[in-house]
Amino acid sequence: ALSGGERRRVEIARALASQPSFILLDEPLAGIDPIAVGDIRDLVSHLKDRGIGVLITDHNVRETLDIVDRAYIIHDGVVLMEGEPDAIVAHEDVRRVYLGERFSL
User: pLDDT digits over 26-46, tens only?
Assistant: First the structure.
């Protein structure tokens, strides 16, 4: 049986077999060990370097904001904020309703 991280890598490899321009990763960092998180982060960076667009949905905010160029925070079905990670983290409403005042990258 494959571990969570191994399953994620296989899922991504299968998606890449069709040579996509964009890839959607739904919760790629959920339920995997820290080493696998690092591997997935490296893989996402590699995909970006190859010009493949990567759309990520994930609740692991710190890890996700660390690898994306742009983020969207959705609250109650509405886009609360969109922008670069530093702007997201600095936004007062995002901190109040989602990140918390102590959050930092």
Answer: 999 888 888 988 999 999 999
Confidence of residue 102 (pLDDT cuts 50, 70, 90): confident
DSSP 11: H
Per CATH, domain 1-68 is 3.40.47.10 = no
Helix (H, G, I), strand (E, B) or coil at 54: strand
Q: Are 5 and 35 in contact (CB under 8 A)?
A: yes
SS3 call for 69: coil
- E strand residue ranges, the chain: 22-26, 53-57, 71-75, 78-83
Residue 60 has pLDDT above 90, yes or no: no
How many alpha carbons fall within 13 Å on the CB side of residue 60? Answer: 20
- 77 sits in the region (left: phi over 0; alpha: psi -120 to 50; else beta) called left
Residue owning tokens 């007062």: 92
- Model pTM? 0.80
